[in-house]
Amino acid sequence: MPDGQDAKIIPRPASAGAEGANAAAGANSPAVEFRNIDIAYGKFVAVRDFSLSIAKGSFVTLLGPSGCGKTTILRSIAGLVDISAGQIMIGGRRVDDVPIYKRNIGLVFQSYALFPHKSVFDNVAFGLKYRNVAKPEIRRKVGKALDMVRLPGSEKKLPSQLSGGQQQRIALARAIVFEPQVLLLDEPLSALDANMREEMRVEIKKIQKETGITAIFVTHDQEEALSMSDRIVVMNAGSAEQIGTPEEVYERPATAFVADFLGKANMLAGTVSRPDGPTAVTLASGQTVNVVSPKPLAQGSAVTVVVRPQKLSIGGKSANRLPGRVVSASYLGGSAIYEVDIGGKTTVRANAPIDGRVLREGEAIELGFDPDGCVLLDAAGQRIS
Ligand SMILES: Nc1ncnc2c1ncn2[C@@H]1O[C@H](COP(=O)(O)OP(=O)(O)O)[C@@H](O)[C@H]1O
Ligand SMILES: [Mg+2]
């Protein structure tokens, strides 16, 4: 089992009001807990043996390629899809049989799903009216939610009078206005243009911190996941591959899938040519590199050396040297991405700061990395630990 899978999340104090009637059910319980759930659509099992514990007030992201089961898991929390095995607990209470309308959950989707002919006020007030909140209280809460999403005074507008980003803010206001126990966000930024996406990342994160709400965010975008989350669940084909902080999943990928999906790491195949003192791996491309192995490895065993593009320097004094030739260069401003051919059959990616000038295609260079700048995977694609 990948690292971190069994790590306990330390519960944080819940924000006032976010608990509601469930306070007695377990002040120290996780906000949401999945225990070995399966979800099937007919005979097709979309989610298999999924377990996750989400601390109150934390921001957790389900990250993975399209079709890996992210939306299905979110829907199961809201009660929009039934689980076929396991248990879901919200605030320490089993909810498998609690209907949708009794689960106190806020939802934001990719499409804003606002009522087009209703005013901003009526859109945001929807969940409160539904819960029979008194009128003056509705006005106060809607005003507060609109302040929170930085659209104060927009009550009388229609959704069509707002930009995409503003509509998504209204959808967010609508989801948080009744102080739900959990906020579910399913790819909420993917319909927005790049600039707006970055702005909304910061905005959503800020609102989540201010309200102390527990948020479960779904995306296939690794940058969104890395920049917003307290913890990331990297999903593959209906199961969790790795659960950890952004740094953990990025720096110490548990599997080949995680290494490749997050940041397109270089995966250099090789065999152990010296078991210890220090461990050396001879790469398929011909070079021998020193690595740090957490345990002794058998001479001749197959391993993959995973090196992030950022860990590869050009020239410099690193212990491991890979001579090669620049195949392509993409200038990114402060740094450049180089595709470098090493040994004729292997191309690696380096992301290096610009040192004077951008390197040219065909230029002969030497890439370097330190023995502790890489992760080792075994023949089955699991991190050696
Ligand atoms: N209503 C459905 N009926 C049948 N299969 C479905 C249904 N919804 C989703 N699936 C399948 O379940 C898998 C997971 O889907 P989904 O949770 O939407 O993935 P993601 O959100 O990660 O893209 C996919 O293979 C998808 O085709
Ligand atoms: Mg989805």
Number of domains: 2
How many strands, what sense, and barrel or not for the largest sheet? 6 strands, mixed
Element order: H for helix, E for strand: EEEHEEEHHHEHEHEEHHEEEEEEEEEE
Under the CATH scheme, which class of the largest domain?
Alpha Beta
Number of strands: 20
**How would you write the strand order of the largest sheet?**
6-7-8-3-9-10
CATH architecture of the largest domain: 3-Layer(aba) Sandwich
What is the end-to-end distance? 11 Å
Structural class, from helix and strand content? alpha+beta
Helicity level = 10-25%
Shape: elongated
CATH homologous superfamily heading of the largest domain: P-loop containing nucleotide triphosphate hydrolases
Count, helices = 8
Bound molecules: adenosine-5'-diphosphate, magnesium ion
Explain what this protein looks like in three dimensions:
The protein is of the alpha+beta class and 385 residues long. The chain folds into 2 domains: 20-254, 3-Layer(aba) Sandwich (Rossmann fold); 264-377, Beta Barrel (OB fold (Dihydrolipoamide Acetyltransferase, E2P)), CATH 2.40.50.140. It has helices at 70-78, 120-130, 135-148, 164-176, 194-211, 222-228, 246-251, 256-261; strands at residues 32-41, 44-54, 59-63, 85-90, 93-94, 105-108, 182-186, 214-219, 231-236, 239-244, 266-274, 279-283, 288-291, 302-307, 313-314, 320-331, 335-342, 346-353, 364-369, 374-377. A 6-stranded mixed beta sheet has the order 6-7-8-3-9-10, sandwiched between helices. A hairpin with a 3-residue loop joins strand 16 and strand 17 (335-342). It is elongated, with a radius of gyration of 24 Å. It binds adenosine-5'-diphosphate (ADP) and magnesium ion. The site of adenosine-5'-diphosphate has 11 residues, from strand 2 and helix 1.
